[in-house]
Design goal:
This protein is of the alpha/beta class and 465 residues long. The protein folds into 3 domains: 72 residues, Thrombin, subunit H; 276 residues, Rossmann fold, CATH 3.40.50; 95 residues, Bovine Mitochondrial F1-ATPase, ATP Synthase Beta Chain, Chain D, domain3. The protein contains 12 helices and 22 strands. The strands form 4 sheets. Strands 9, 11, 14, 16, 17, 18, 19, 20, 21 and 22 form a 10-stranded mixed beta sheet that branches. Helix 3 links the parallel strand 16 and strand 17. Helix 9 packs across helix 10, helix 9 crosses helix 11 and helix 11 packs across helix 12. It is elongated. It starts with a strand and ends in a 6-residue tail after the last helix.
Length: 465
């Protein structure tokens, strides 16, 4: 029976309390907890046994005593209020406004856990998104409806790159604009302020919904933050027909909060202490991207995660790579050389790229140019390793050509200004200009008719000083 308060709790352990359960309690149900002084806190049910329910409190459990605390099960899951007024607003990790304005005016609430998408209802992503960043557009293309994470490390410019993508992302040959949903989990105040300032200065703030769970907020809040953000994205995409770009940062902080809760509950740990269900929990978030039949809108996800110790085999990037359709990997050595964006050429990958490029989508030569640049840059890496052993003067003339190509490729193709917005034609033209530095016979991944059409024109362009 609802509306009944239960007095007393069995135990309190960090943010977790164990209480006597009511008859029809369900997993994820919201619970009101009132201490002896009358302070009200909110929690949710995260585990159930025959007699007891385990409740996770959003915030501190200070002041909750075993005898006088009262608990009420509210017969509702965690919900987010949605409506026309979402855009341009800033919320905390639980979906409460923190921008000084009142709640949005709407009677519609949606379960933040989302509804499962029938796989048959999904539409295969094929629409090219131009980010204006050559290392992404040319070699690791982002497709509308894709989930393409950025694998970064502490101190690398992943936030600047994400902000640049948000400013510049557009769909070619279409008038539709993107709206953005930004979710910050455990981020510092200056990072949150950087994104707000960037959105304001570029004039896109009115098309952004922000959810912020700052570093000083309870870590438990981080579990809800991406779910609130994705619920807002689903409403805008599938009910309002908008194209939504979702940026989630930092997924490492989210996983740390998950590990903290798992440890408190006494669960058997998996790799590096993370819970065994880390894969399914991440999949629950990432799989909320995509396009659905009958809906004009779409959700494209760019999760950002900082790899602990720059270790790409760490459980968080490892499992993320299994679930998502590729990754953009940032390289510390490239960043230390002053290159921006420091996108590592070889470890980066977009698995949906092949279906969104080519004639009628980007340009007929895109696939061949990308493939040849990958092959040539891979050879550059091998030659550099050889030169470190035998010395550069011992290399063949062809190998020296490749070293020159590698240096120009990094400085002119991969490197660009933070506010430089390159069209896909500009990106591919620069790619041809780089390939003109190599022997024609080594361009074995490009069709001869493409070489005849584009290479001469690129070779005629004077080299930059």
């Amino acid at each position: 029976m609802r509306g009944v308060e239960y007095k007393g709790v069995r135990s309190v352990d960090g943010p977790i309390i164990i209480v006597r359960r009511s008859e029809n309690v369900f997993y994820g149900e919201i619970v009101a907890v009132r201490s002896r002084s009358g302070d009200k806190r909110t929690g949710r049910v995260i585990d159930i046994s025959e007699e007891y329910a385990v409740v996770q409190i959003f915030g501190s459990t200070t002041g909750i005593d075993l005898d006088q605390t009262r608990v009420e099960f509210l017969d509702t899951p965690m919900e987010l209020r949605v409506g026309e007024g979402l855009l341009g607003r800033i919320f905390n990790g639980l979906g409460k406004p923190i921008d000084g304005y009142p709640d949005i005016v709407s009677s519609k609430k949606i379960n933040v856990n989302g509804n499962p998408i029938n796989p048959y209802a999904r539409v295969y992503p094929r629409d090219f998104i131009q980010t204006g960043v050559s290392s992404i557009d040319g070699m690791n293309t982002l497709i509308r409806g894709q989930k393409l994470p950025i694998f970064s490390g502490n101190g690398l410019p992943h936030n600047r790159l994400a902000a640049q993508i948000i400013r510049q992302a557009k769909i070619l040959n279409a008038d539709e604009q993107f709206v953005m949903v930004f979710a910050g989990m455990g981020i510092k105040y200056d990072v949150a302020q950087f994104f707000i300032n960037t959105f304001e200065e570029s004039g896109v703030l009115s098309r952004v919904v922000m959810f912020q769970s700052l570093a000083d907020a309870p870590s438990i809040e981080r579990i809800i933050t991406p779910r609130c953000a994705l619920t807002a994205a689903e409403y805008l995409a599938y009910e309002k027909g908008m194209h939504v770009l979702v940026v989630l940062t930092d997924m490492t902080n989210y996983c740390e909060a998950l590990r903290e809760i798992s440890t408190t509950r006494g669960e058997v740990p998996g790799r590096k202490g993370y819970p065994g269900y880390l894969y399914s929990d991440l999949a629950e978030l990432y799989e909320r991207a995509g396009k659905i039949k009958g809906s004009k809108g779409s959700i494209t996800q760019i999760p950002i995660l900082t790899m602990p110790n720059d270790d790409i085999s760490h459980p968080i990037p490892d499992l993320t790579g299994y679930i998502t359709e590729g990754q953009i990997v940032l390289d510390r050595e490239m960043s230390q050389k002053g290159m921006y964006p420091p996108v590592a050429g070889l470890p980066s990958l977009s698995r949906l790229m092949k279906d969104g490029i080519g004639e009628g989508m980007t340009r007929e030569d895109h696939k061949d140019v990308s493939s040849q640049l990958f092959a040539a840059y891979s050879k550059v890496k091998s030659i550099r390793n050889l030169a470190a052993i035998i010395g550069e003067e011992e290399l063949s003339d062809t190998d020296k050509q490749y070293l020159k190509f590698g240096e120009r490729f990094e400085n002119e193709f991969l490197t660009q200004n933070e506010f430089e917005n390159r069209s896909i034609e500009q990106t591919l033209d620069i790619g041809w200009k780089m390939l003109a530095l190599l022997p024609r016979g080594d361009l074995y991944r490009i069709k001869p008719e493409m070489i005849d059409k584009y290479l001469g024109k690129a070779a005629a362009v004077p080299a930059e000083a």
